[in-house]
From TrEMBL:
Gene3D superfamilies: Vaccinia Virus protein VP39 (3.40.50.150). The keyword Transcription regulation does not apply. Keywords: Methyltransferase, S-adenosyl-L-methionine, Transferase. GO terms for molecular function: nucleic acid binding; protein-glutamine N-methyltransferase activity. GO terms for biological process: methylation. Residues 177-281 form the Methyltransferase small domain. This is Methylase of polypeptide subunit release factors. The keyword Methyltransferase applies. InterPro entries: DNA_methylase_N6_adenine_CS, N5-glutamine_MTase, SAM-dependent_MTases_sf, Small_mtfrase_dom.
Length: 382
């Protein structure tokens, strides 16, 4: 049995000898129990059968061929569109959501069975392997040992590096924000626009932002002329990301970042929070920005808001109603939590999202997404 705090190990046999290395999975997947060494001679059908049965494939062939094999596995996992249409439609939106999450989880497990070895210093000992040292250092910190990860995770690290390098254009800032690996990218601009457009409460000399993420909302508040913004965050990657973005935007003198769960000490005339919108369990680090088990952060924000508002102050809750359309959190429950916290709704501004999935009729959750509305709820002491 693995001792608490010790790194997980993956074990396999190669050239007749037992081998092992550190296992790394950001999604928290346990190391596969069955591992087979594979190379360019392995065909996609056999690879898919082995992966579906839970046998991991430790790649020793050409790196670019491994990428092609992963694409072939994904096509086999997803199946043909005409076959998917024959399945009976889920009875309720909630059932559709759970089936969709279940399918995503199974897909992720199967595709994670194609493994890539690393040598110290983030070197991949494979033909035509890319130089991923910078991307891995950004995601993981220093790498001084051998380890094994899934190719799918590695491609995510590479993609995150590109996001970080290129940034995401934020029109209301007239600048780009650079998300780090594991930090949710502010690609849904409608909620940023809501915060930029809503009139500020009178005498807003300080504002709190709960859950800084990339730092985009703290930056918007500071750019709107609030002299002091205090933003809190618990995730170390998000704190590092927010600090970098606030510095790049030249806002270090206005924005203070604190490692704290929910609220900083004191009170403010404006407290802003954009919690995860869906009450479900995240399956990876970046999903913590989307899924909030048992609505923990939402309930924590509502429950503590009144005690952190100055007289006449406002709390701005930015929240999608997607959970309502999925049957996961009724509107009456949200309104009940607001009332129980001694708060009143002062107003609400709504906007419809414009992200691609909102208009994708092939999405399993299309009915809910097409009805989704993002709102800025203005809350005050009752």
């Amino acid at each position: 049995m693995q001792e608490a705090g010790t790194p997980a190990q993956i074990h396999w046999t190669e050239d007749g000898k037992p081998r092992s290395a550190r296992w790394h999975s950001e999604a928290g997947m346990p190391p596969p129990k069955r591992v087979q060494v594979a190379d360019d001679t392995l065909n996609a059908d056999t690879a898919f059968r082995l992966a579906s049965e839970g046998t991991a494939l430790l790649w020793r062939g050409d790196f670019q061929n491994a990428r092609q094999l992963l694409g072939a596995l994904a096509r086999r996992v997803d199946g043909k569109p005409e076959k998917r249409k024959k399945k009976a439609a889920p009875a309720t939106p909630t059932e559709a959501f759970h089936l969709h999450r279940q399918a995503q989880s199974q897909r992720a497990r199967t595709l994670a069975m194609l493994l890539i070895p690393f040598e110290p210093g983030y070197t991949i000992p494979l033909r035509r392997a890319p130089d991923v040292k910078l991307a891995c250092n950004e995601a993981y910190g220093r790498g001084d040992d051998d380890f094994v990860i899934s190719l799918r995770e590695l491609l995510g690290v590479i993609g995150a590096h590109e996001w970080r390098r290129n940034g995401v254009e934020i029109p209301v800032l007239g600048a780009r924000v650079h998300p780090h690996y594991g930090v949710f990218s502010p690609v849904r601009g409608e909620y940023v626009q809501l915060v930029a457009d809503q009139p500020l409460p009178r005498k807003t000399d300080v504002a709190f932002e709960i859950g800084a993420g990339t730092g985009v909302l703290a930056a918007v508040l500071a750019r709107r002329g609030i002299p002091r913004v205090i933003a809190t965050e618990t995730d170390r990657r998000a704190l590092s990301c927010a600090r970098e973005n606030i510095g790049l935007l030249g806002l270090n003198e206005k924005v203070e970042l604190l490692e704290a769960d929910l609220f900083p000490p004191g009170r403010a005339p404006l407290v802003v929070c954009n919690p995860p919108w869906v009450p479900a369990r995240p399956s990876s680090s970046v999903e913590h920005a989307v899924y909030d088990p048992d609505s923990r952060m939402l309930k924590g924000f509502l429950g503590g808001l009144k005690a952190h508002l100055t007289e006449g102050g406002e709390g701005w809750l930015i929240l999608s109603d997607l959970a309502e359309h999925l049957g996961l959190r009724p509107r009456e429950q949200l309104l009940g939590w607001i009332a129980d916290a001694g708060l009143a709704v002062l107003g609400r501004e709504d906007v419809r999202p414009v992200h691609p999935k909102a208009g994708d009729a092939t999405d399993p959750l299309h009915a809910a997404r097409s009805a989704e509305v993002t709102s800025l709820w203005r809350l005050g002491a009752a």
